[in-house]
Amino acid sequence: MPVLTAAVLAAFAGYAGAWYLGMVEGNFALLLFLATIVTGLYWLAERLYFLPRRRQAAAALEAQAAQRKGELAARGIAPVDADLATARQRLLMQPWWLDWTAGLFPVIIAVFVLRSFLFEPFKIPSGSMIPTLLVGDLILVNKYTYGLRLPVLNTKLTNGTPPHRGDVMVFRYPPKPSLDYIKRVIGVPGDQVAYLNKKLTINGQPVSKVALPDFFDEDAMRYFKQFEEEIGGKRHRLLNDDDRPAFIPGVEDFPFKQNCQYSVEGVTCKVPQGYYFMMGDNRDNSLDSRYWGFVPDRNIVGKAFLVWMNFSSPKRIGAFD
Fold it and tell me: Does residue 183 carry a catalytic annotation?
């Protein structure tokens, strides 16, 4: 068992190292699931087999010591002091290969359940959601609001509450589902979404857009036009770049692309059933549904709701819309 365990731990360490070095495309959900299964099997083996055997060995040691003590007493010989407690402790102690497997199972299963069904942490890697979310924000995503899903497979177990317009949602990037993206829900199934000349219209109704003072992007070292928009009863800020045209370049092929009409003014799309239209709040610097299409319900990960830390700016901690 020690050799087998060393090989299993080396495989996990090798995978993590190759992922860190960029040699393989990592899948943390799968890695955590496998770690839960492996450590769980060791935990069961410890409870049902290895621990009882160690206890039997300790009991046998105590019985032998008692028998020896009785034999010496029968001969009138005083018992010799022996460090029986230390020997018993050594027999009951977990070997290293169980410490690193069965011993870690309670922690791993707690992380697995918390991350899979309640809350999952993410780090914002890009500026597509500025000014709502900044690069480096560490956020929490609610995994149950839109319905519980099986880990790894992402198959829905419960219906939950459907996503609403204005929600900030994490989802699996449709062209490459191994990647997680975060954008704002703009259109729900059945909506007619138009973004023409940088003005948003949903089902023929213009979305309220009020000018705010310009926003200074510290990374880009320049100012951008800032507005307040209201979608689904929720207000949020967005940015526009006057130097970027309304035309959408580099549009990819995607399912239901025939539902969209592109022009020099922008795009108009009819959202199909079971899909959502997503856009970043940094409207002219966001790769979103305008470019790669609709997000299917099966790709939904959860609803983002809280910045729990930004080491460059701790004052950003708090909830957001």
Answer: yes
